[in-house]
Every structure is written in structure tokens, then in C-alpha cells.
Design goal:
Helices cover 36% and strands 22% of the residues. The chain is of the alpha+beta class. It folds into two domains: 6-153, no CATH class; 160-262, Domain of unknown function DUF5300 (Immunoglobulin-like). A four-stranded mixed sheet has the order 4-1-7-8, with no helix packed on it. A hairpin with a 2-residue loop joins strand 5 and strand 6. Helix 2 packs parallel to helix 4 (53-65). The N and C termini lie far apart (51 Å).
């Protein structure tokens, strides 16, 4: 096995000595992965069971980023691990400094912080191999939102499809459904009709913006705030829409989203 380059050797040294703050350590780990030298893994193997789960997760990130499945297994095990552990990274410093509770007060917060961080790294890795582990955790009360974020980061995980039903009495012309990650063209949707399904590789969202033509005028109805908006769980969805009178004098009609259904 050849010796690592001087730059890589320095990164490894920096990584192993950065035990205080997991964020700069993750930055170093990312740079190590970018150099794509599998020869670093034997040196790091001893850290795969480090008692600080954040440090352990950062080591696993390097293994995973270089395609070694041991890294994924370590991250999965941290998500499932609720055993006792010492106070480590992931707890806000002020929470530590001001705490007066008895020994072990940190356990619930520490377990959650460690599990949350492992899910975060799976999202950063963006590797489809994590999907089967993450999907059952979507309903987890503590991790669900972070899990759905991670799944959004993994390309083409949702691979959903969407159709539109015009439940109103007015034709919808040249309809485009807009989401935080893309757009789906539906064209004209006559009153009372249902479109064919269209592919939605980035998922279907509970709320959507619409671009359409009304009285020959292009109208875009934005969603003001997408913060916290994540794709819904499922494969096939239906938006039930109708045109209703607009409160704005410059536009006669606007789209109302009547209902979103999960078909499959």
C-alpha cells in the first residue's frame, strides 16, 4: 500500500485530532472523500466504534463516501442505538454549562442528537442505498422531518407521479404545477376532466404553485413560503382543482386546490 500524499496525510491528522466539534471534522472528512484514496480506510478502521457517535458517524461518512458498505452499516446502527453513552458532541454548549440535573441527564438529548446526525449524513451522502433504511423512519415522531429531508436530497427517491382533476365548471388552460424542485406541464384541463399521470421525480407536495392561462393572460400563483414543505409519502397522487373568482381586480379567476389524494 502506498503512502498517502502529504495533503491527504495532513487531512487525516487534522481529522483524528478534531474531536471537539463535529462540523469542522465533517468538512475535513468531505475533503478526504473528494481525494478518493481508499488507502486511508485501514488507518481509520479503529474509529468505527468510537464511543462518541458523532465522531464515529464522521468516520463512517468517509467509508460510505468511498463506497465501503461498513460506513453505511455504522450509520444505520447509530440510528437504531438507544444504549447508554457518555456526554458527547451534538448537545448545545449552553445546555451543558447551565445544567444542574443529576448524572445522566444528557441521555435522551444525546441519543436523539446522535440519531439525528446519522440521518443527516445519509442525506449529505445522497446515496440510494440508504433509502430502504430511511423510508420506514418517515413516521418516526422524533426523526420523521429530518428523514424526509434526507430522502429529498437523494436523487429520484420519490419517483412519484401526479394527475390533475378539474372539478370546476371552467376550463383550465395551459396548466403548470410548480414545486420547490421543479415543474410539471399538464396543458389544458377541461372542466370535469382528469389528466393522465405525469412523472414527478422530485416528489409531490401537499401545496403547489400554479402557472396557467386565464382569458389569454399568463398567471402565476406562487406559494409564499415553502419552508418546511416536503414531498408526501406515496407513488401516485391526484390534485383536485377548480377555478374560482379572484379577489384581485387584474385577474378574473384563480386556481383553488380542493384536495390532494394519495392514490397509491
Amino acid at each position: 500500500m502506498g503512502q498517502p500524499s502529504s495533503a491527504l496525510a495532513q487531512l487525516l491528522t487534522d481529522f483524528e485530532h478534531e474531536l471537539v466539534d463535529y462540523e469542522p471534522q465533517l468538512e475535513i472528512a468531505t475533503r478526504i472523500v473528494e481525494l478518493n484514496d481508499h488507502g486511508v480506510l485501514p488507518r481509520l478502521e479503529k474509529w468505527l466504534d468510537h464511543e462518541d457517535r458523532h465522531f464515529r458517524a464522521n468516520v463512517a461518512f468517509i467509508f460510505s463516501g468511498l463506497g465501503d458498505t461498513r460506513g453505511f452499516q455504522v450509520l444505520y446502527s447509530i440510528i437504531d442505538d438507544c444504549s447508554d453513552r457518555p456526554l458527547g458532541q451534538g448537545i448545545p454548549p449552553m445546555r451543558i454549562l447551565t445544567n444542574t440535573d443529576p448524572e445522566g441527564w444528557w441521555m435522551p438529548d444525546q441519543v436523539l442528537a446522535d440519531r439525528y446526525y446519522a440521518v443527516h449524513l445519509l442525506g449529505v451522502l445522497r446515496d440510494p442505498r440508504a433509502v430502504d433504511v430511511l423510508l420506514p423512519l418517515v413516521a418516526d415522531d422524533e426523526l420523521g422531518t429530518k428523514v424526509r429531508w434526507a430522502l429529498v436530497e437523494i436523487p429520484h427517491v420519490w419517483d412519484a407521479r401526479l394527475r390533475v382533476v378539474n372539478t370546476g365548471g371552467e376550463d383550465i388552460e395551459d396548466l403548470t404545477v410548480l414545486s420547490p424542485k421543479g415543474r410539471i406541464e399538464f396543458g389544458d384541463v377541461p372542466a370535469g376532466s382528469t389528466t393522465a399521470y405525469r412523472e414527478a421525480p422530485d416528489g409531490v407536495f401537499g401545496y403547489a404553485a400554479f402557472r396557467l392561462e386565464i382569458d389569454g393572460q399568463l398567471v402565476t400563483q406562487p406559494v409564499i413560503d415553502w419552508v418546511g414543505e416536503l414531498p408526501m409519502v406515496g407513488k401516485s397522487f391526484t390534485y383536485k382543482l377548480e377555478l374560482v373568482p379572484s379577489p384581485y381586480p387584474s385577474v378574473r379567476l384563480m386556481v383553488r386546490q380542493v384536495e390532494v389524494t394519495v392514490d397509491e
